[in-house]
Amino acid sequence: MKIATDSPLALYTLRRADDALILGHRLSEWCGHAPMLEEDMALANIGLDLIGQARSLYGYVAELRADGSDEDQLAYLRDAPAYRNLLLAELPKGDFAQTLLRQFLYSAFADPFWRATLASGDPTLAAIAGKSEKESAYHLRHTAEWVIRLGDGTEESHARAQEALDLLWPYTGEMFEADAAERELMAAGLAADPEPLREVWSRTVDQVLREATLTRPVGGWMQSGGRHGRHSEHLGHLLAEMQVLQRSYPGAKW
Amino acid sequence: MPTPDTPLWEVFIRSRNGLAHKHVGSLHAADATLALQAARDVYTRRGEGLSVWVVPSAAITASDPADKGMLFEPAQSKIYRHPTFYEVPDDVGHM
């Protein structure tokens, strides 16, 4: 599959679709394993919201490509270097604190991102944003409440939350990246500019971390590469599990 | 798992405007905020609700099953309390 031939709009959409699918898959790994039934359901719900967003976005990518591909091919028949998701999304689920911190850091971006995308001049992206914005708003509320309770909870929950935050922090810069092709989409009013979103994100994160008595890591060098197909070793393992059925039984349906 | 840190809450959902909140089940949560979110996540996945209440189970005062005879049996012999002895005229329509 030749990603290089994608139009800027298709590549832009593919990147967001990959974020949603990979993060959704990571959340699905908690199904049956969360510390309590209530949170098992909550994490699965968020995962399903994200996979739903991924389906809409992949559908649009396939439409833009007009090469007969579909959402299943995009999800199940690409290898790791063809994926364009944030590195943040593919990191292992870790413990409960790591999953919740990651989801909070992402949702604090996704919520204003989808709200900004409501104004996209592209009617399909704007429509997907209309659905995703409500979902992300709840993801942010739910994960923020947990971050506050983990940070301001027991000695152990505080230590684990701070450890997760320190681990994840260098992966947050990638959310605000935009290459030249994406800048053109922004200039054309099709895509949301991530720069003003950085301030919104920062404010949300500061406010929640303060309430959680967690220390915001000092900025500095940020990880990068996912948007261009340079991934950590974790993505290959994730795809192996996620894709095994379609790879073993091509075209299998249920 | 029930623990002292996650007490039990009763969940009530109103499915439509004009209907009363109805008890749908219970859950465990650390506090009211998380209980409300858990209620949303566990009990409204199929579009069941427009409004959710959560109430600490410990706040409910319940009748003692042993008092069943004293509390409820006296009503069973008072069939005249049911409004079934009236003929509703056809013109009244749905009542």
Instruction: Please outline the major beta sheet of chain A.
Output: none
CATH superfamily (homologous) name of chain B: Phenylacetic acid degradation B
- Order of strands, main sheet of chain B, comes to 2-1-3
Low-confidence stretches of chain B: none
Q: How many beta-strand segments of chain A?
A: 0
- Global mean pLDDT of chain A: 96
Write down the overall geometry of chain A: globular
CATH class of chain A: Mainly Alpha
Q: Note the beta-strand portion of chain B.
A: 15-25%
Q: What name is given to the CATH topology of chain A?
A: Ferritin
Principal-axis shape of chain B? flat
Predict the CATH topology of chain B: Ubiquitin-like (UB roll)
**Helix-strand sequence of chain A:** HHHHHHHHHH
Using only C-alpha atoms, the radius of gyration of chain A works out to 18 Å
Domain unit count of chain B: 1
How would you classify the helix and strand content of chain B by structural class? alpha+beta
Helix content of chain A: 55-70%
Keywords:
heterodimer; A: 254 residues; mainly alpha; Ferritin; globular; B: 95 residues; alpha+beta; Ubiquitin-like (UB roll); 3-stranded antiparallel beta sheet; 3 strands; 22% helix; 21% strand; flat
